[in-house]
Amino acid sequence: MAEAAAPPAGAAANSWEKLAGFGVDIPFVRHLGFELTQFAAGQSEITYTAQPAHLNSYGVTHGGALMTLLDVSMATAARSDSPEQGVVTIEMKTSFMHPAVGPLLARGTLVHRTATMAFTQSTIFDAQGRACASAMGTFKFLKRPPGSTTALSGAGRASPTATISTD
């Protein structure tokens, strides 16, 4: 089975550079072609158009791609409040309501935060404005390793000094 090519490093790749302090290259997000269009004041928006390799057997966007879009839009909404910190997903509840076809828009919202946790929600809309999927999630804020803005090194490998703990 041939490996799918990553989308060109154009607008989608450049949109993540706007995220001050984002600091981590996420190859899967880059592969899917998510484009971050809003990142401020507890809100995020990400656009996405599924490629043929991202569809299920019914020809609609695969649920795994939709869950990733929801997860990333909630994480960026949480991080928009504290971009110098990272977040990890603790819990996520997803509902699928309508087949997702064509260009999609995920809107993430930071609902509440504490010193260490973020409570978020996100909805994915199709081009007609129909809600296709929604999620609620809980994220834990993490501090970056000292002297580093990234938890990755080299070809996407985790740095040995980049310890991630949910303790």
Helices and strands, with pairings:
Layout: H1 11-17, H2 27-32, E1 35-40, E2 43-49, H3 63-79, E3 86-96, E4 103-113, E5 117-125, E6 131-142, E7 152-153, E8 157-158
Characterization of this structure:
Strands 1-2-4-5-6-3 form a 6-stranded antiparallel beta sheet. It has a two-stranded antiparallel ribbon with strand order 7-8. The model is unreliable at 1-13 and 148-162 (pLDDT under 50). It has helices at 11-17, 27-32, 63-79; strands spanning 35-40, 43-49, 86-96, 103-113, 117-125, 131-142, 152-153, 157-158. It is built from 3 helices and 8 strands; from the N terminus they run ααββαββββββ.
How many H/I helical runs?
Answer: 3
Give the averaged pLDDT, no decimals.
81
Task: Tell me the helix content.
Answer: 10-25%
Find the structural class using helix and strand composition: alpha+beta
H-E string: HHEEHEEEEEE
Poorly predicted regions are 1-13, 148-162
The rounded distance between the terminal residues' Cα atoms is 40 Å
Please state how the strands of the largest beta sheet are arranged side by side: 1-2-4-5-6-3
Mass-distribution shape: globular
The number of E-state strands comes to 8
Over all CA atoms, what is the radius of gyration? 16 Å
Largest β sheet strand count, sense and barrel closure:
6 strands, antiparallel
